[in-house]
Amino acid sequence: MAFNRANMTENKDIMLIPDEVIMNQIYYIRGYKVMLDEDLAELYQVTTGNLNKAVTRNIKRFPDDFMFRLTDDEFKILLFQNGIARWGGRRQAPNAFTEQGMAMLSGVLSSDRAIAVNIQIMRIFTRMRQMLADNTDLRLEVEKIKTKLDNQDKNMEIVFRYLDELLEKQEQPNPPRKGIGFKPDNF
User: Fold this and answer.
1) 3-state secondary structure 124-171
2) Would you say residue 93 lies in a domain?
3) What would the mean pLDDT of 154-181 be, rounded to a whole number?
4) How far apart are the first and last CA of the chain?
5) What is d(CA 25, CA 7) in angstroms, rounded to the nearest whole number?
6) Rounded CA gap, 166 and 161, in Å?
7) Which residue ranges does the record assign to the KilA-N DNA-binding domain (predicted)?
8) Is residue 115 helix, strand or coil?
9) φ, ψ (nearest 5 deg) of residue 52
10) Is the alpha carbon torsion for 86, 88, 92, 97 positive or negative?
11) Residue 32 covered by a domain
């Protein structure tokens, strides 16, 4: 199949997988947002074994920050969090692919479907990063407003304290004043 813009436009218009399905398969493990080999294999419509064989043949492309195998404890926690998982009967814990690892997969798996799915996954990761950045900006703005309100509250407390002191002074009777100046005794 020859590459041309028309095919690319058609592929763009056809959504392969609902974004929510992909987003629900992204996990946060060891400080990375990752997808598991079995979920990726299903999306690419290949077997998990074939996906992992392709990775093994190209292992130099997958350093630890691109792909790592879950520990048994991590895998058990993941199974527990998700209830009954379809990947519960595996012989070994799954491989987890970071965003960079998934990008590298596109060079290893070259089927049209794998390329189209990878593009969709990369777009979802980009949108997630943008949402996080937008939320961070919003959170910073809220913090600025809170700080201003806290300062205003402190200033208002000072004003009310001074007003209370003035009212207390007004309520206290003034002691009689002694006259100032010279008073002749004969008056």
Assistant:
1) HHHHHHHHHHHHHHHHHHHHHHHHHHHHHHHHHHHHHHHHHHHHHHHH
2) yes
3) 77
4) 126
5) 28
6) 9
7) 24-108
8) helix
9) -70, -35
10) positive
11) yes
Residue 27 has pLDDT above 70, yes or no: yes
Quickly list DSSP for 63-114: -TTTEEEPPHHHHHHHHHHTSS-TTTT-SSPPEEEEHHHHHHHHHH--SHHH
Domain with 122, as residue range(s), is 5-135
Is residue 20 within a helix (H) or strand (E), and if so which, with residue range? helix 19-23
pTM, two decimal places: 0.57
Average pLDDT, the chain: 78
pLDDT in tens, 89-132: 667 788 999 988 888 887 888 778 887 888 888 888 888 878 87
Q: Average pLDDT for residues 140-151, to the nearest whole number?
A: 77
How many structural domains compose the chain? 1
Residue 164 counted as domain residue: no
Token output for 88: 């519960």
Whether residue 182 lies inside any domain: the answer is no
